[in-house]
Write a structure and sequence with these properties.
Layout (H helix, E strand, L loop, with lengths): L7 H8 L4 H7 L1 H21 L20 H9 L3 E5 L2 H7 L4 E6 L7 H8 L4 E5 L3 H7 L3 E3 L7 E2 L5 H6 L1 E2 L16 E3 L3 E5 L5 E8 L2 E6 L15 H9 L4 E5 L14 H4 L4 H23 L13 H14 L3 H19 L8 H12 L3 H10 L5 H22 L13
Parallel strand pairs: 1-11, 2-3, 2-11, 3-10
Antiparallel strand pairs: 4-7, 5-6, 8-9, 9-10
Helix pairs in contact: 3-11, 6-7, 13-16, 14-15
């Protein structure tokens, strides 16, 4: 008993070309560009967010390596009331008659007027890692002098520095990135913990009758660096001088408003380089693809394209993308349609029915005809050309066999 002939649905399903792999191969350059852009974006995000890893730097409530919760708790145990503030209004509400205000403002949110307001509520101001604007506001005679060289001895008569004796102002591995230690060159002020070249890590001065301490390293007060040498002693004596300590980390609300905020000030620092990179990638891809497509051609409409040009153009596209199976399917579909017309079958006839009629008409093996029309898949351009030649030859043979000029035997007895 012979196997059942394949249905039209089976034949059509078998003839579909597996183009997913070729489509993925053509998309490889775009995938690579996308992966590179994603890696750059993630790297920029990681670098830009490095300061926030482990919590807010020098926060009195942060128990992480870059926080200062350990120092704040010890001060509280010694009778100092520690209050946190994120704006000048909160500082004014928290301050009393006997108050030390610690200021850590790496973003530069506090201006000259802000420091003037602090002197009206604070007895002592401790500014950690002051920037250029803070130095100009509080101590114009003090200038930044670069990173600290290493362990430094007090070398001054400030009580807090003498009790600490020696400190290590350098950032640790866990605080690197959250702290940028610096030193000062001071004239007319008390310089402590001087290293090579007279660079001091602590400067004591006064501003509008208030005592001001400039501490060049936030790492001295952070959880990961407080236990080195006399760092803890320095922090406790600087910040524990008065009954109340206001731990002030200025925010955007303290930034002076000089006009409408622009987009750059409202976005993280990594956004701009990532946007520029993506723009360059887009332009490079557009130029690359534009050169592949060639220059634009202006033609008057309507345009009449000869069938031969369309056929040759499609053939070149198939060849360029190595779409041999798709080209073979196009050849087979055309051949099967013409063969069904030659043998007198309707357009709805299945490939198996057409193959059986062609085999009966030409005297060829039905399985060989079906293999040629349906199942053979070329793996190279040479095999595709050979398949095209054999399909054309089969079509010519079928047309010749069906022609009235070439009568064939009917199987009946003839005189």
């Amino acid at each position: 008993m012979s196997a059942a002939a394949p249905t039209r649905e089976d034949a059509v399903a078998t003839a579909l070309s597996p183009t997913v792999r070729r489509t993925a191969r053509r998309a490889v350059p775009w995938i690579v560009l996308g992966v590179i852009a994603l890696l750059v974006a993630l790297s920029s995000l990681a670098l830009g967010a490095g300061r926030s890893i482990g919590g807010d730097p020098l926060s009195a409530t942060n128990p992480g390596p870059v926080g200062s919760k350990a120092l704040a708790q010890v001060l509280g145990q010694r009778g100092v009331t520690v209050k946190t503030a994120a704006s000048l209004s909160e500082v004014r509400d928290a301050a009393g008659d006997d108050t030390t205000v610690l200021v850590y403002d790496p973003a530069g949110n506090l201006d000259h007027e802000g420091y003037d307001q602090l002197t009206s509520v604070a007895s002592t101001i401790v500014v950690v890692e002051p920037d250029f604007a803070a130095l100009q506001a509080l101590a114009p005679s003090v200038h930044a002098a670069g990173a600290p060289g290493g362990v430094a001895s007090a070398g001054c008569d400030l009580p807090a520095a003498q009790r600490a004796a020696r400190i290590d102002p350098r950032a640790t591995a866990n605080t690197d990135g959250a702290s940028a230690p610096g030193t000062f060159r001071a004239s007319g002020a008390t310089a402590c913990f001087e290293g090579s070249g007279g660079r001091a890590s602590l400067v004591g001065t006064s501003y509008q009758g208030r005592t001001v301490y400039l501490l060049g390293s936030a790492a001295v007060l952070m959880n990961d660096g407080i236990d080195r040498l006399g760092n803890a002693a320095l922090g406790l004596n600087l910040l524990g001088e008065h009954r109340t300590l206001v731990w002030y980390l200025p925010g955007l609300v303290d930034r002076a408003v000089t006009g409408p905020a622009d987009l750059a000030s409202l976005t993280p620092g990594w956004v701009t380089p990532v946007v520029i990179l993506l723009t360059l990638v887009f332009v490079a891809a557009a130029v690359w693809r534009g050169r592949r497509f060639g220059p634009l051609v202006v033609e008057h409409l309507p345009v009449v394209v000869r069938a031969g040009e369309t056929r040759e153009g499609r053939a070149r596209l198939y060849q360029r993308s190595s779409a041999r199976l798709r080209a073979a399917d196009a050849l087979r579909i055309g051949t099967i349609g013409r063969l069904s017309t030659i043998v007198g079958l309707p357009r709805a006839a299945t490939t198996a029915e057409v193959a059986e009629a062609v085999a009966a008409l030409t005297g060829r093996d039905r399985a060989a005809v079906l293999l040629l029309l349906l199942e053979e898949h070329p793996r190279s351009d040479r095999e595709l050309i050979d398949l095209s030649d054999r399909l054309a030859e089969l079509e010519r043979a079928t047309s010749a066999a069906a022609s009235p000029d070439h009568p064939r035997s009917t199987g009946r007895m003839e005189p």
